[in-house]
Design brief:
Length: about 325
């Protein structure tokens, strides 16, 4: 049963450019995070129409040009079932070449038509039926692996048809890590057991790892154990090793002020009322450096290999400085 060594990621709020945060600020924060030596990866979110933002691959390309060490990932590529796998294979391989082999691709099902009018419009505009999303994710992962392999690809399915197609250039990495982001029952609080098993088995069968958010530590631990058990069942015990957790962070000695700013930031980021207090209970680490470090540690203890932190604050630089100086030493101390 393989697991990766503990690393830390920084999630840049690439949707914040819509409410006044310049992208240059995010680039500077990425450079500052890499220079600190405390962060091993930089991540950006992704959507098309449902949650507009700077396009993820474009943003990662810009970050790749300004950094040299940190890995670059999506958290997560929610548009994956809407993207045609052939151009995506070329685009992601190009990003891997540009970055010198530093990419981590995390994909997910994206929003369902039942999630609201913006998600329905997004699916309709891209000509994708909501019920097709899971199948397109599974097939898309398989096609990326095939396109990045050595041989021309011949493929025929409900969605795609290719005849002796060769995609060049290939990624620098012999195997680009692909993880699946999923959190069954996140909105209802009570996942259907059959759906939960299908989701976890999909990770174990197709991916190199799992990404989640807003998940209680005990649930995270249990699901990760199940994923690894399923992976062993599929003969992939040594292939599913990555577990990243997207965690919101606001460092402020005034705990109430940290919570208030986080809610204001997330309301502007996702829409008023989108993020519930019950979800924030496990999605937000806030307050003093000690409190934030302790929250992060609960997820590390539960098996998380890569906590990915996003600052729910309008002053991204100040949050990063406090995180590097006051939070990370406490978290790192706990490693020993």
């Amino acid at each position: 049963m393989a697991t990766e060594p503990l690393t830390f990621g920084l999630s840049l709020p690439n949707r914040a450019v819509l409410f006044g945060v310049p992208f240059e600020t995010l680039l500077d924060v990425a450079v500052q995070a890499e220079g600190s030596g405390q962060f091993d990866s930089i991540w950006v979110g992704d959507n098309f129409l449902s949650k507009p933002r700077l396009e993820a691959l474009m943003a990662l390309s810009a970050i790749a040009a300004r950094t040299s060490r940190v890995k670059l990932g999506t958290i997560c590529l929610a548009s994956f079932p809407l993207r045609h796998p052939l151009p995506l294979a070329l685009q992601w391989a190009s990003l891997d070449v540009i970055s010198g082999g530093r990419t981590i691709l995390v994909v997910c099902n994206g929003g369902a038509a039942s999630d609201g009018p913006l998600f329905r419009k997004e699916l309709e505009s891209m000509g994708v039926k909501s019920r097709e999303r899971v199948a397109r994710v599974e097939e898309g992962i398989q096609l990326l692996r095939a396109f990045w392999g050595p041989d021309p690809v011949t493929w025929e399915s409900e969605f795609y048809r290719f005849n002796e197609v060769q995609v060049l250039p290939k990624p620098v990495q012999a195997r680009v890590p692909i993880a699946i982001a999923a959190n069954p029952g996140a909105l209802t609080g009570a996942p259907d057991p059959a759906i939960e098993e299908r989701v976890l088995r999909r990770v174990a069968r197709l991916a190199d790892g799992w990404q989640t958010d807003g998940t209680p530590p005990e649930v995270l631990r249990s699901r990760w154990q199940r994923i690894q058990e399923y992976a062993a069942e599929y003969g992939r015990a040594d292939e599913v090793s990555h577990l990243s957790l997207h965690l919101m962070v606001n460092i402020n000695d005034d705990r109430a002020a940290a919570y208030t700013e986080s809610v204001e930031f997330l309301n502007r980021y996702y829409g008023i009322g989108t993020v519930t207090p019950s979800f924030l209970e496990h999605w937000l680490a806030f307050g003093s450096p000690q409190a934030v470090a302790e929250k992060i540690a609960t997820f590390v203890d539960a098996g998380c290999t890569t906590p990915v932190l996003r600052f729910t604050a309008f002053n991204q630089h100040a949050q990063l400085e406090r995180c590097v100086a006051e939070v990370m030493p406490l978290v790192r101390r706990g490693e020993g």
